[in-house]
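Minutes, project check-in
Item: structure for the 268-residue chain
Input as provided by the requester:
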Amino acid sequence: MSWHYELSGERLGPVTAEKIKDLYDKGRLNRDTLVWHGPFGSTWKKLGDVYQEFGIDGGPPPLPQKPLSDFWAWLLALSTLTYAIVEAVSKDWQAELSSPVAPIVITFFINCVFVYFDQQTIEKSNRNPENKTLAFWIIIIPIYLLVRAKIVGRGAYLLVVWLITTVILVYAQNPNILNGGVYLGSGIPKCNSGTSISQINNLFEQIPLMKLYSIKLIQSDNYNETSFDGTTRNCLATARASNGQTYNLKYTIKQEGSQFMYYMNIVN
């Protein structure tokens, strides 16, 4: 008698009953695997409900599920907020230690605690009968939340919460990220990069003369590099202002530690 079975959402078969038992013994199939053969008509059944057909020792059924609290999972979904709080609290001593990664390390250990208690909660609820490992995914919180949702049979709403809070906090800390004001590349920004253009546009209106007469920038253009020595990039550009004048700009992009500093002045 031939059988079909479901694996990872795919219908496989036909195979013999002995093959089904072999896959079960190897751990590739479990009691919840859907199986089918002709007498079932249009209904697929769980392997655990028809284990006698394959000579499998059915054993006791899974323990009944208990209510599951998402408290610790919620804390993980808000891990970006945890990082922001740790970063704010640790600013003073972080400077003394000269360790910008300190908030990351602290947040990681806090998340490890959350994951430990969350796994304990899941085990007590009998919602992980196959004892699938979740702890590995602590290194990538969104994947942890996605895998958790599949194991406990709930929607991925906590993953959505993580995504939303992450986007909001990143934007709150970097409001210029959408207009090129935040540099996301590697190495010193080029003269005509979005970041450089955003910076010189902002610097132009901060020049004392421009501030004094409330002169606004209409458009900057003609970005050219004049020199680059690996740590400093010198550039030229032109700026058309609200007073009808066009100004020649000279600006320098210099790497200082982990930051890029912009210096600009008007030239004849």
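Outcome recorded: The CA atoms of residues 78 and 164 lie 10 Å apart.
No further action items on this chain.
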